[in-house]
Write a structure and sequence with these properties.
- By secondary structure, the protein is of the alpha+beta class.
- 28% of the residues lie in helices and 21% in strands.
- The chain has a domain of 35 residues.
- The chain contains 1 helix and 3 strands.
- A hairpin with a 6-residue loop joins β1 and β2.
- The chain is flat.
């Protein structure tokens, strides 16, 4: 068994629910009341999805996404 690293994007405004997704696995999303919960749920959803692919004899998608931040001056 090998390990793969998938980007998880977490969105939320800090006041309510957070949602998470991975650009490399478009069929998978998760939510949680906190950022940490959303991330944990997404990790579990990815693992569940990849287990299902393996049971069906399908390969896991290759991780391709990366992320960075742009730091800019704002007036």
């Amino acid at each position: 068994m090998s390990k793969r690293r998938y980007l998880i994007v977490i969105e939320g405004n800090g006041q309510a629910n957070y949602s998470a997704y991975s650009p490399d696995i478009p069929a998978v999303a998760a939510t949680g009341p906190t950022q940490e919960d959303g991330e944990r749920e997404m990790r579990e959803a990815i693992a569940f999805h990849l287990d299902g692919l393996a049971l069906d004899g399908e390969p896991a998608p290759e991780p391709r996404s990366t992320a960075s931040y742009a730091v800019v001056d704002v007036a």
